[in-house]
């Protein structure tokens, strides 16, 4: 069960990361909308790196190197997830304020 969930999560976050990366770099897109999309990309990359870190902890033979790598991946993934969420929420609020101001 863990393997199916892991593979599904990795593939979904990888596809989402690529999709948001391509979408954010389109011409003619409003800068705030582009930054919101980059925040979504950072969130999906955070999920991907966190899942890779969790996978390192599921092996039978846990040695010091594997645990250190897993902790680094978990830290980097968590930071990327938190900062991506913060950026998305910040730019979404600015985008909504700009839309209200314009109408």
Automatic annotation (TrEMBL):
The chain crosses the membrane at residues 6-22, 43-59, 65-83. It holds the Pfam family YtpI. Keywords: Membrane, Transmembrane, Transmembrane helix. InterPro entries: YtpI. This is YtpI-like protein. It comes from Brevibacillus aydinogluensis.
């Amino acid at each position: 069960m863990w393997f199916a969930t892991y593979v599904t999560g990795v593939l979904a976050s990888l596809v989402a990361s690529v999709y948001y990366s391509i979408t954010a770099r389109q011409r003619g897109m409003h800068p705030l909308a582009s930054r919101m999309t980059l925040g979504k990309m950072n969130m999906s990359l955070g999920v991907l790196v966190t899942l890779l870190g969790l996978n390192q902890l599921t092996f039978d033979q846990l040695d010091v190197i594997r645990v250190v790598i897993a902790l680094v991946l978990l830290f980097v993934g968590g930071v990327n997830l938190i900062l991506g969420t913060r950026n998305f929420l910040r730019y979404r609020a600015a985008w909504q304020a700009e839309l209200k101001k314009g109408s």
